[in-house]
Design a protein that fits this description.
Layout (H helix, E strand, L loop, with lengths): L1 E8 L7 H15 L3 E7 L9 E4 L2 E6 L10 H10 L8 H8 L3 E4 L3 H15 L18 E6 L8 H8 L9 H8 L11 E4 L2 H7 L6 E3 L14 E4 L2 E4 L16 E6 L9 H9 L3 E6 L5 H14 L5 E5 L6 H9 L2 E4 L8 H8 L4 E4 L2 H9 L4 E4 L4 H13 L1 H15 L4 H14 L1
Helix pairs in contact: 1-15, 3-4, 8-9, 11-14
Length: 431
């Protein structure tokens, strides 16, 4: 099977959950014998030319055009990170020339419309019903969309912040949309819908004949080297046995790890606030900055609380890199206080690494943790006292840390990428 994965951005230097899903699924499909190619924009990409081959997978990139005026470079950089709904000249032509059996789109709006157009040109005109085609042909292109963003549960405040960069600018792209007759009925017009979050699965399964829930996954083998040394029944992180101490305490520092983009959605501010109550704790934030003003807020607050020397902004680390594995190995507790989250792939990584997990009970993240209650402590989103209580329990109950660690490793084994990729290929065949 020839599979084209289409997404807005694929930069190994600035990584997010969608990119990680696409890359791991593509690798697993290639390993299973399928022909796979990735099509993306040049957003945040620092390479040369438009083509590269990574681990045997060809990646083609095309320059995005953001349809607002004026469009200074600062705004282009911001939209590269957060969205921007661009036009992508050349993408449709490249897809048609490659002639895939399946176009799997991992974006919405204009990129999704373009994928539908290419599939329609390859197989006839679509009929009126969702997920149904007219003028079927044996060699038709199947068109599938994945919903990665948790659109079913994005808070209103955050939805407004996503639109803020383009507020007050001329949206000339709307005139082009009207001229091209784009309907914006996505995702209903796709042959199949893949939902990362259960909220979206519940929303669309009654509206479309081909909808599947496919959770995010993890490469469990990659984390086998991130181990725990046992002292009787108490799990002790190897890297904290000789950890430094803070001037305010004689105890080794406890390292809190949060792997997530620096963004209000991820709510790292709660971790910064927690440091003020726990002089024995330090925090490491791993992930790209998608909201520069939010990072500035975090830094200012850390200075105000007197904890700036215990906060580290590590930046984006490539998935599977020795540097990322080292961050998991050095940590004692994984914390994800997101305001909303369709799934929470980094929790799977933390489990695979044997880390105790403290996470907000929200969206798909909450359901993931609820499915494995022995592997995580959860708290209501934004409830600082509840999060702080969970951290205090972990610091004082060594047996609890050991139980969470063992249960997390067992839970992660159920989400291996190879298993999920096989289910997805079966879904392609069914539609």
């Amino acid at each position: 099977m020839r599979i084209a994965h289409v997404l807005r951005r694929l930069s190994f230097d600035d990584w997010g959950g969608t990119e990680q899903v696409v890359w791991n699924i593509a690798k697993a499909q290639k390993a299973a014998g399928h022909e796979v190619r990735i099509f993306a924009t040049t957003a945040l990409w620092r390479g040369n030319g438009e083509r590269e081959v990574v681990e045997g997978i060809e990646i083609l990139r095309f320059k995005p055009i953001y349809p607002w005026w004026p469009m200074p470079k600062r705004l282009v950089d911001e939209l590269d990170r957060k969205g921007g709904n661009p036009f992508v000249p050349g993408l449709g032509k490249a897809l048609r020339e490659w002639k895939p059996n399946v176009i799997h789109c991992h974006a919405m709006a204009r990129i999704a419309e373009l994928c539908l157009r290419v599939a329609g040109q390859g197989s006839g005109v679509r009929s009126q019903g969702p997920g149904v085609r007219g003028q079927e042909s044996v060699g038709r292109i199947k068109c599938v969309v994945s919903l990665h963003g948790g659109g079913a549960n994005v808070p209103d405040e955050e939805a407004k912040s996503l639109k803020a960069p383009t507020r007050g600018r001329l949206p000339w792209g709307k005139m082009v949309d009207i001229a091209m007759g784009w309907t914006r009925r996505v995702p209903e017009d796709f042959d199949g819908i893949v939902c990362v979050g259960e909220d979206e699965y519940e929303r669309y399964r009654a509206k479309h004949p081909h909808v599947m829930f496919l959770p995010n996954g993890v490469d469990t083998a990659m984390f086998e080297s991130v181990g725990v040394r046992e002292r009787g029944s108490v799990g002790v992180r190897v890297d904290t046995l000789n950890a430094p101490t803070h001037p305010l305490t004689t105890h080794p520092l406890t390292t809190l790890l949060c792997v997530a983009r620096i963004d209000r959605q991820k709510n790292q501010m709660m971790i910064v606030e927690a440091l003020a109550k726990h002089p024995e704790m330090t925090a490491r934030f791993v992930g790209p900055v998608t909201q520069q003003d939010y990072r500035a807020e975090l830094e200012r607050r850390a200075v105000e609380l007197g904890v700036a020397d215990r906060v580290a902004f590590v930046g984006a680390l490539r998935p599977g890199s020795p540097e990322l594995l080292c961050e998991y190995a050095k940590a004692d507790v994984f914390v994800l206080p997101s305001r909303h989250e369709p799934f929470g792939i980094v929790v799977l990584e933390a489990w695979a690494a044997g880390l105790p997990v403290v996470a907000s009970d929200v969206g798909g993240l909450g359901r993931l943790c609820a499915s494995h209650p022995e592997a995580a402590l959860t708290f209501a989103p934004g409830d600082f006292d509840a999060m702080d209580g969970a951290l205090r329990r972990l610091m004082s109950e060594s047996d609890l840390r050991a139980r969470l660690s063992a249960a997390g490793r067992a839970a992660a084994a159920q989400y291996d990428w190879r298993t999920l990729s096989s289910r997805l290929v079966d879904f392609y065949a069914e539609i």
